[in-house]
Amino acid sequence: MFAKVVVDIEHSKVDRIFSYSIPEGVDVSIGSRVLVPFGRANKKVEGYVLGFSKTIDIEVSKIKNIIRPLRKTPEFTENQLELAKRIKEFYITPLVTALRLMFPAEMRGERIKEQIRKYVRLKLNDEEYENAKRSLYTKEGKIKAPVMLSVFEELKNGSVSISEAAKHFSSAASAISSMEKKGWVEIFEKESARKPYSNIGKYDSNIEKLSEYQKNAIEKISNGKAEKFLLHGVTGSGKTEVYIRAIENCINDGKTAIMLVPEIALTPQLIAMFNTRLEGHIAIYHSGLSKGERYDEWRKLNSGKAKVVIGPRSALFVPLRDVGLIILDEEHENSYRADQHPKYRTHEIAKMRAEIEGANLVFSSATPSVETYFEAKGGRMQILNMPKRIHNIALPDVYIEDMREELREGNRTIFSGRLYNEIIKTLETNKQAILFINRRGISSFVMCRGCGHIVRCDDCDVSMTLHNSADGGVLICHYCGRHKPYSKTCTECDRPYVKAFGIGTQQIEHQVQKHFPGARTLRMDFDTTRTKDSHAEIYRKFKNKEADILIGTQLVAKGLDFENVVLVGAIAADVSLHFPDYLAIEKTYSLLEQVSGRAGRKGKGTVVIQTYKPEHYAIQHAASHDYVGFYEEEIKERYKISSPPFGVIIRILFVGEDDESTADAAKKVEGSLNKALDDFKRDIMVLKSSPAPIKKIMSKPRYQIVIKVKNSENFDEFKTALYECITNYKFDKVNFGIEMNPQNMF
Questions:
Q1: Is CATH 3.40.1440.60 the classification given to domain 2-110?
Q2: What is the pLDDT of residues 620-638, one digit of tens each?
Q3: Phi, psi (rounded to 5 degrees) for 397
Q4: Which is nearest to 549 in space by CA: 427, 457, 650?
Q5: Is the pTM of this model over 0.90?
Q6: What's the fold here for domain 212-392?
C-alpha cells in the first residue's frame, strides 16, 4: 500500500501528488500530517496524506518511506480535503496553500504542543486524612500551618494544579512539597487545556415568547434540506435567538454547526450568550487567542468534544464532522474577505463547504450586501424577513443634520445644535450615548497653513494622523505604524503654522470633555483595543454604566446591545462616501443603519446623523430604515457601470523593491494580458498599468492593473486564460497577486 502525499512546500513546481511507502508498524489515515524525506537531499518536510493506492507507475525501489505521522489522529476530515481541492481550483492556488487554512499555523514544524502541568492529589484514606489534618493544629486548637491546611482541605474535593494553588497562596508550592515528604500527597503531570474566555460568566438571557418571524425562521433553517437562506432582520429583531435555537436543533439531530461572526463582533456578550445556552458544546476559534488557546480549541473540534465553533472567517475551515448548519452573521462585513493569498470571499467558501457537507447555509444581516440581496432576489436563496424588533419596540427616530447650515449659523463645534441638546438630555436622565466616527486619532491630516505642506509618512505615500501621547502629541502612519513627534513649526518653511485638520475619535473625546465636563467617557477604536481583553473590558465598563458616552469607530456599530443607550450620534456620516471603491456607498449606508440600531434597544431611541451631503440616497434611506429603497437605487447605479453583481472587477497589484522594476513588471504583464485576453475583448476592458492610489507602503512601491469584466457565459474560460498568462511570470524584486472584486482600491 502506498500513500498519496502532497508536500508542504508552497510552489507550483511541486503542486502535485507524490507516492510514499508506509513502513510496517506506521499507522496513517487519509487526512494525516506526516514527516517525509523529499528531494535529492532527502530533506525532512511535512506532508498531507490525501489517499492510498495499491499500485504505482514507477519502480518500487525508488519509492521513499514515510518517516512518521505527526499526530496520532488525522488533522483533516475527508470533507475538508475536498474543500481544499475546490479552493485550489476556484482560486488557482497550490493545494498546500488551501490545506494550510485548515489548522493553526503553529502546528507546522511542531511549534505548539499540549500544555502539561503538575498536579497534586491525596494519598490518604478518610481516617488517615483526619489524623493528618489534626496534626496541623496545636493542642490549644490554633492552626500551625494555615497554607498547608487550606491546600489540604481543597484536596479533599479532588486534585489541584500546583500553579493554580500558587496563585491563591504564595507559599503553596513549599507547603505541597512538605506534604509530599510526609507521604500525604503525590505529585503527577497531566494535560491542562487552555480555556479562553473562562471568566466570561453567564448571560442572563430573559427568553420570552418568540415572534412569529422568529418561529418561521427557526422552522425553515432547521429543516435539514441543505438549503440557502438570507435572514434579513432589522437591528433588534432577535436574530441571535434564531441562531441559538437553530443550532440547538442541529445538535439534537446529531449534527454540528459553524457560527461565523466578523472579528469585530466577537463580543463577550455574544460568547456569554452562546456559552450559557449551549454550555459544553462551544469552541471559540480566532486569531485574538493565544497560540496555545487556539491550538487547544482546534483540538476540541478535531476530537469531537465541541459541536459548535464560533469565530471569524478562519472558523469556517475547522475539522468539524457532520456539519448540519453554517451561519454568517453580519454577512455584509468587509472582514469576510481575506486580504492575504488566497484572497478568498468567505461567502464563496461557505457555499462550497455547505454543499460538501449537505448543510443548511444562512447569510444574515440587517443590511445585506447588494450582491447577496441580488442573489436572493434572483431565487438562488430563500429570503426570511424579520422586519420588526422583538416586543414591537420601535426603531429609533433618526434626524439628519446639515452641517453646512450649522456653519452658516455660526456653529463651529463638531456638534450640531440638535446633537448637543440630545446629549444634555441623555446625561440629565442618566441614560447613555454612543458617538460614532469611522476615523481614529485627533485628526485626519496635519498641514502647514503657511506653505500648504502636508506631513506624510517617509515610508508610505499617505498623510500622518495626529494622536495623543504623554508629551502632547505624536504623528502616526496607520499603514506601517511609523511615529513622528508633532511640532507646530513646519519642516518646509520653518513657520509655526502647522495645524491638524479633520477629526477622529480622540478629538471627539476631547470635545466631549470640553463641552460636557461632567460626562464620563470610554473610547473604543484600534488604539484602545490592541490587547487581548481590552475590547471585553471596555464592553464591561459601559455595560455596568461606568461611563455615560462611548466614542468609537465601526467597532461600536454592531454586535453591541446596551439597554440604557438611548442616543447615537454619527459625527461625520459621509466620510466613507468618497473612498475609491465601488462599495463606498454601500458601506456608508450599512454603517449608518447598523450604528443607528444601537439606540433604543429597550425603548425609545434617537439617532442624529451629521453630514455635509444630506441629500445623498445612502443617508436618506439610512434615516428612514429603508434597505429595499437603498438597494433599488444602488443596483441601478451598479448596472450602469457593470459593477458587481453585473460584472467583475479584477485588480492585479504589484509590490516591489524599487519603483523602476515594479513599474516595468506591471508593464510587461499588461502587454501579455492584452494578447492573451484578445478573444474576450468584447466583454473586458484592461486599464493601463499605473501607480496604485497609495503609491507606496512601508517604502515599497505599488502599481496596479485593473480589468473590468462584464458577466458572460465565457467567464470561466476568461479566468483560466488570465491565470495561465500571469502564472508564467516570476520577478526577482516584485511580488504580485490577483484580487476579484477588491474591497478597496487603495
A1: yes
A2: 999 999 999 999 999 999 9
A3: -75, 135
A4: 427
A5: no
A6: Rossmann fold (3.40.50)
